[in-house]
Amino acid sequence: LGALYRERATGVLELIEADGGAAGRGHRVHLDEGMVDNVETPLGALRLGELLRREGFLGEQAQRRLIRGLAADPNRKSGEVLMEERLVTPTALRAALRRQLRTRLEALFSLGDAFVRFRTARPRSYTPERAPALSPREFLYGRARRRDRESRPRHTSVAPRVNDDRARALGVLGLAAGG
Prior knowledge:
Layout: H1 2-6, E1 11-17, E2 26-32, E3 35-40, H2 48-54, H3 60-72, H4 78-84, H5 90-108, E4 114-120, H6 136-140, H7 146-149, H8 165-172
Antiparallel strand pairs: 1-2, 1-4, 2-3
């Protein structure tokens, strides 16, 4: 994530579990100019209504209205129902969405071995019901760094830049161009 942040990459980092009973299960981290914008994972994270209720921003009656709104139209997002019904403030909704995003990202750090892919993409538009992207402090702080794990000395020579997007993306991920 640090390398993608420094390169201000926009796209999807995909992790495919390699071992165990969950082998083949996929997880996606969406990046917009290096910032974590969304995380898709089947790993556990509280639902938005549950999170707001636990944090004291959504009462029992409001939670019932949310559930009824979602049952009436299963294709609607919780944030849309919460805002339309005025069950929470926009500030509380953004804070809960951000907490939910961080929880999903934290869950990915529990993964064992995984195959890594990165696909470039166009930047996504911001909508009020989406959480703002996580700051680097939220997704990089306290994490092991690649340079700390390497025992060999770092090279000081600089390789010439290649304009090929694919080669650049592979280089950011530390992968060979043929891989």
